Amino acid sequence: MISSSTLIITIVIIVVILSPFFYFSIKKRMRNAEFKSLIQDFAAQNNVVLTEFELWNTSGMAIDKSANKLIYVRKTHNHDYVKTCIDLNEIQRSRISETEKNASTATGNTRVTARLDLALVYTNKEKGDEMLEFYNSEYDGYTIANEMELAKKWVNIINLHVSKRK
To answer: Left, alpha or beta for 141 (phi > 0: left; psi -120 to 50: alpha)?
Structure first.
């Protein structure tokens, strides 16, 4: 039989151990809800209805397939927001742009991703490519997580959408 004091101490220890996980989980959920609301407000300002959207780190992307609009929002390292609404009627295709740099490791030098962008290629070549940042090692951390998979997913979504238009 467990004594009541042992049971109370065990419960307190479990609560102390689990409380940071609950705290960060709730904080992340609140941050995502706030960011989703920011994207929805920006979309509404541009008469865009979100058909599909994605949130990652401090970024979000959404598409309105009927209005041919793409919404991109990213919180920068100095806590400002980059907000972009792109008319997909002006886009020929999209592609991934990856910039690498040398990094020192215990086994020597290796190439790592420094920046990952989704590049939108305009049909009007004078405009140049629109670069939508998915990852930047300077302020997103040193390890790229699922940003490459997300970038590939959105390249496919955009390319499929603009190819149907032709």
So the answer is: left
> In whole angstroms, what is the distance from residue 69 CA to residue 75 CA?
20
* Residues 6+ away with beta carbon under 8 Å from 74: 58, 59, 60, 81, 82, 132, 133
pLDDT beneath 50, residues of the chain: none
- Tell me the two tokens of residue 80: 């400002």
- The full set of domain ranges for the chain reads 4-165
Q: Give the whole-angstrom CA distance, residue 154 versus residue 148.
A: 10
CB contact at 8 A, 165 and 71: no
Q: What confidence score (pLDDT) does residue 69 get?
A: 94
Amino acid at 80: D
Contact status, residue 71 vs residue 42, Cβ threshold 8 Å = yes
CA-based torsion, 25, 26, 29, 31: positive or negative: negative
Tell the residue number behind the tokens 């949130």, with chain if given: 55
119-151 pLDDT per residue, tens: 999 999 898 999 999 998 888 877 788 899 999
Residue 88: its pLDDT value, please? 94
The per-residue pLDDT for 1 is 67
